[in-house]
Amino acid sequence: MRPWGGPRAAAPAAAGRLELLLVEDDAVVAEVVCGLLARLGHGVVHAPHGLAALAELELARFDLALLDLDLPGIDGLALARLIRAKGLPLPLLALTARADAEAEPAARAAGMDGFLRMRVTGDILAEAIAAGVSQR
């Protein structure tokens, strides 16, 4: 996990390895998810909020982004809409602790390609990432 703010060269993903952007404001959750993703063999950049994520998207190429819905400032729904408005074909997965029935339809309406509720495992992440990448 690289703290937000440092330089990062854009490089194409090697076979099987993807470059992922995780946008999550909770440091503990971010550490756990980054660890799961790294164990799957992926490169992960963590952005703690929407503005940091937008900056990362200007600096590097990513194969997929995982967005928390409840971020400070620009929430995950607004961030997804901004990414879509930029015309980026980046697959987006919502990753949230929300339990309400409106969360998934709202995420999909904002442009998310997939939806995951917290308490994810490496296998759940691997499956969702494979599905997200194949959709774009």
Structure description:
By secondary structure, the chain is an alpha/beta fold. The protein has one domain: Response regulator (Rossmann fold). Helices cover 40% and strands 17% of the residues. It has 5 helices and 5 strands, in the order βαβαβαβαβα. It has helices at residues 27-39, 50-59, 76-85, 103-109, 122-135, and strands at residues 19-23, 43-47, 64-67, 92-96, 114-117. Strands 2-1-3-4-5 form a 5-stranded parallel beta sheet, sandwiched between helices. β4 (92-96), α4 and β5 (114-117) form a beta-alpha-beta unit.
List the helices and strands and how they pair.
Layout: E1 19-23, H1 27-39, E2 43-47, H2 50-59, E3 64-67, H3 76-85, E4 92-96, H4 103-109, E5 114-117, H5 122-135
Parallel strand pairs: 1-2, 1-3, 3-4, 4-5
Give a short summary of the structure.
The protein is α/β, with parallel strands linked by helices.
Name the descriptors.
5 strands; Rossmann fold; alpha/beta; 17% strand; disordered N terminus
**Count of discrete domains:** 1
Class, according to the CATH hierarchy?
Alpha Beta
Q: Give the percentage of residues in beta strands.
A: 15-25%
Number of strands: 5
CATH superfamily descriptor? Response regulator
Largest sheet: 5 strands, parallel
What string, H for helix and E for strand, traces the elements in order?
Answer: EHEHEHEHEH
Q: What is the number of helices?
A: 5
Percent helix, as a range, is: 25-40%
- What's the architecture in CATH terms? 3-Layer(aba) Sandwich
Low-pLDDT residue spans: 1-15
CATH topology: Rossmann fold
Distance between the termini: 25 Å
